[in-house]
Design a protein that fits this description.
It is built from 9 helices and 15 strands. By secondary structure, the chain is an alpha+beta fold. It has 3 domains: 62 residues; 36 residues, no CATH class; 246 residues, phage-related protein like fold. A 7-stranded mixed β-sheet has the order 7-15-12-8-11-10-9. The radius of gyration is 39 Å and the shape is elongated.
Length: 421
């Protein structure tokens, strides 16, 4: 018999390996770097595999010893005579059915049972699988055994890894890159921004005074926020579940944290961008390619004017992914060019007009922003998992969290495309 503990642990280990493979395959397919949430997920999976391996090693050694013991015990067999008991010998039981030596003997019993009502003859016939029906000897039908007769032997299995519908990729935070918040003291901090530059001009004449000016530096305030959650889980839930609920809980905490922080940073960014570029009045909800190109270049010029930097990123909501994808793919199918960009049904990554395009599903519908990604920032410090054992109830409290601060340093470096009113 296999060791059920070893089987359960091996299934958990295989699930962790499969989780790592799936994560890496998704990242490779999307041709991007691992985001922080995925790095944390992989670290937790590797730690869990190491824990499982440390448990499996002594259990497998024990199974080898038990197998050797069974092999030794199997070489011994009792030499006692069947039909007797005592002295460790087995009791032989005669289960042989009645056997007819001749056909005449069988027919004679049939006559006695049918015509004379001989119960002994009837019993001998039944022991050979023959019964009387309407005075005739017929072969008894064997009973059918189906799953309805053996419900106690039917196992209930749980197959595969726990399925989750959360997307923890954090496309917006990944597009700007999360900076390290650890080591920054206080509940708030400031990011310096030049608000007034010096003056430089042509000297009017030799020895004439050149331009003078004031150099001023302001600041943008960043506020730290704490994100996290906790729950209490019993030891029984941890020890008896397969796949293990502990692994599923840790993964769920990390993914939910990733979703919540992504939404918070993305919402703050959309709110901070107030500069707008209107599409032409007849664009409606479905702009033509000409209208869209005009709007994008108009927004790009606003972003440059406000920051002195050419825009390098286009951020779009899910509905714009559909509109842009249709335009790009239609151009690819009808022209010999590259379609003005790259889009795919299987990925949110791509580009538009040779500019990196980022789809942020949490953006409000109709959001399309052009700008300079370095002018908005996200800082983060995950302190990860905290646990506390509750011995008197055989429970474990599990918490997960981190700190995050986000802000847009130069709102004028971005412009939204909006429909003309």
């Amino acid at each position: 018999m296999s060791n059920p503990v070893i089987t359960r642990l091996e299934e958990q280990r295989a699930a962790q390996v499969e989780f790592i493979d799936q994560t890496l395959s998704r990242v490779d397919a999307e041709e991007r770097d691992l985001v922080q949430a995925e790095q944390d997920n992989l670290s937790a999976a590797r730690e869990r595999i190491a824990q499982i391996d440390s448990q499996l090693e002594p259990l497998r050694e024990f199974e080898k010893l038990r197998g050797a013991h069974r092999s030794t015990g199997a070489s011994y067999s009792s030499t006692g005579t069947g039909g007797q008991t005592g002295g460790g010998q087995s009791l032989a039981i005669n289960t042989r059915e009645h056997e007819y030596r001749t056909a005449g003997e069988f027919l004679a019993d049939g006559y006695r049972a049918a015509q004379k009502g001989d119960e002994a003859a009837r019993d001998r016939l039944q022991s050979t699988g023959v019964v009387l029906e309407g005075g005739q000897l017929v072969r008894a039908s064997a009973p059918h055994t189906t799953t309805a007769e053996v419900p106690g032997l039917l196992p209930v299995t749980i197959q595969g890894q726990v399925m989750s519908d959360l997307d923890a990729a954090r496309p917006f935070i990944s597009s700007v890159g999360a900076k390290d918040l650890g080591g920054i003291p206080g509940t708030t901090f400031k990011r310096p921004v030049v608000t007034e530059h010096v003056n430089v001009g042509k000297q009017s004449a030799e020895k004439a005074e050149v331009e003078d000016g004031q150099f001023k530096v302001g600041a943008v305030d960043f506020t730290k926020d704490t994100y996290g959650g906790w729950m209490n889980v019993s030891r029984q839930a941890i020890d008896w579940t397969s796949p293990a609920v502990w692994d599923a809980l840790m993964t769920d905490f990390m993914e939910v944290y990733a979703v919540e922080t992504e939404n918070a940073a993305a919402d703050a960014f959309v709110t901070a961008v107030t500069q707008t570029q209107e599409l032409t009045s007849d664009a409606g909800d479905d702009p033509t390619l000409t209208e869209l190109l005009g709007g994008l270049y108009g927004a790009a010029s606003l972003a440059y004017a406000g920051s002195g930097r050419l825009p390098d990123t286009i951020w779009a909501s899910l509905d714009w992914w559909v509109k842009l994808g249709v335009l790009v793919d239609h151009l690819k199918a009808t022209t010999a060019g590259n379609g003005g960009g790259d889009s795919s049904l299987t990925s949110f990554t791509g580009n538009l007009l040779q500019t990196n395009r980022v789809i942020v599903p949490s953006f409000p519908a109709g959001t399309l922003i052009v700008g300079v990604k370095s002018r908005t920032e996200v800082y983060e410090d995950r302190f990860g998992f905290l646990t506390a054992v509750q011995p008197k109830v055989f429970g474990v409290e599990l918490a997960y969290g981190g700190y995050m601060a986000s802000g847009t340093i130069k709102p004028a470096a971005f412009a939204k495309l909006v429909n003309a009113s």
